[in-house]
Amino acid sequence: MPGDRRPRQSKARASPLKGSTGRGKKAAANKQPVEDRKPAPTEEEKAAYRSEIERRFTELGWTEQSMNFPVWSSLKSEWLGMLEPNELADLNDDKVWTNIKERVEYLRNRIKGEREKQKELRFDRLYRLLSALRKSNPPLVSFKLRRLGKPPCTEYPCPPLDYTELRKITHEVAFPGVGGVHKWPVIKSLLDADTTADELEQAFNARRGEIDAMVTEWRDKLHTRLLGFLPKLEGEILRPTLVADGSDPFKHLSDDIKRLLRADSLFTFYDWNDSPYIMNSPRHRPYTYQDILRISAGDVHRLSDLRTQVQLPMDRIGPYPAAQEMARELMKSIARPGASYLELGSEIEGECDWEGASSYEGEWICGRCIDTEPKTWQGIVEHYVDERRKYSSNRAELAKRKLTYHDVHGPASLPNRPLIKFYSAQVALEIMSIKKSERDSYQCQLCSKWPITHSVRGPEKLMFKHLLEVHEVRKPKFMTHYGVPDSYSDFLY
């Protein structure tokens, strides 16, 4: 019945003082922070805030550069956000200022790493740009060489996989590597600029004329330095004899370049801190003009190599009169007094089809001693210079101690034998037949001791030959005159 019905209760209205208990309460809660939020700082306030931070860091010893973040950096926006925040903190609060200093130090460490990485990318790009320029130059000379004879075709050593009867010879034009140019003002500015690798390439291309002029100047300076270490020549400088078609591929070259290409134009190339008292010391190696160009171009591969560079490549070049004189003697002995090193096997050729090892390491072996390892032209010259130097330096002490040691590498010794022999198939077979019949290698006990201190090794048959010709030992005794090589002898030179 209507009278029994309970009267309908109306919903309570929210009081402006109490607020609502439902959705209205949440809405009021959202409105409260808006009413308490501080107004956004003006541009003047932001500028003053930033200026105060920079002033404080300057007092701490920071420079403007250390607080400068480059455009390319991903940290620039984070840096600017800290200097000009939407809400300005109280810089007089010690906690606030400590927090800012820690954040800045963190950003500085990160930007330092980014800058190092960016400089490495700039260096890599510069390295590739210079390499591309070097490869774009036409060769200084190119021709086909007629070999002195067939290389060994035995089971080992094998000829190069790409062996042909006529060998193609090329010689590059002198061009500097990064290691020789990184101190040039134009190159240094490109490397040190706080830019990306793409921006470096754009700047490099824009300054190509300036760079090309400096390369020409560098080339002239290099040639002047090298020629200053060579004797003056008169008459015909180069007389090629092994060019395939009998032509003269050097006739278009200047006399200065021809002098540099001669087989007796050899130099030293080492750092001042390279010791002469170690095995295979760079101080004892003769280098050709081509060797110097290639080593200089590839001397520096990474940015870290510049930090360890002791001398610029050009400053490492020096004269080598002993090697030049020895080379002339060897050139006459093979009836090629006017040959170029390009004709006489100045490079290791080819790789074998196992383990990537070189299978044809040179075209010459010594005709006087039991060293049967094939050598390049520079290697055989070094062998003779080294052997004669050892004999000359020990001669007085050997005479004092009455020790027999004949200089088999001297011009007057063993006149019936050539100084050097071409490493032909026949010579290789003779050597291999000895090595196959005698697996064991022995060491000369007399040479390994002071004052000679020289490691001489070989099969027993060759060792007996050495003992007879060098020491006049006709009845060798094991462990008295020869023995098993010891580990110490590996360090003898």
What is the ordering of alpha helices and beta strands? Answer: HHHHEEHHHHHEHHEHEHEHEHEHE
Strand order of the largest sheet: 8-7-9
Fraction in helix: 40-55%
Point out poorly predicted stretches.
1-29, 351-360
Rounded radius of gyration (Å): 38 Å
Mean pLDDT: 83
- β-sheet strand percentage: 5-15%
> How would you characterize the largest beta sheet?
3 strands, antiparallel
Task: Count every beta strand, where a strand is a DSSP E run of 2 or more residues.
Answer: 9
Q: Output the structural class.
A: mainly alpha
How far apart the termini lie comes to 127 Å
Using the alpha-carbon principal axes, give the shape.
elongated
Helix count, DSSP H or I runs of 4 or more residues: 16
Region (Disordered): 1-46
Biased composition (Basic and acidic residues): 33-46
Q: What features would you describe in this structure?
A:
43% of the residues lie in helices and 6% in strands. Helix 4 crosses helix 7. A three-stranded antiparallel β-sheet has the order 8-7-9. The N and C termini lie far apart (127 Å). The radius of gyration is 38 Å and the shape is elongated. With 493 residues, the protein is mainly alpha-helical. It contains 16 helices and nine strands.
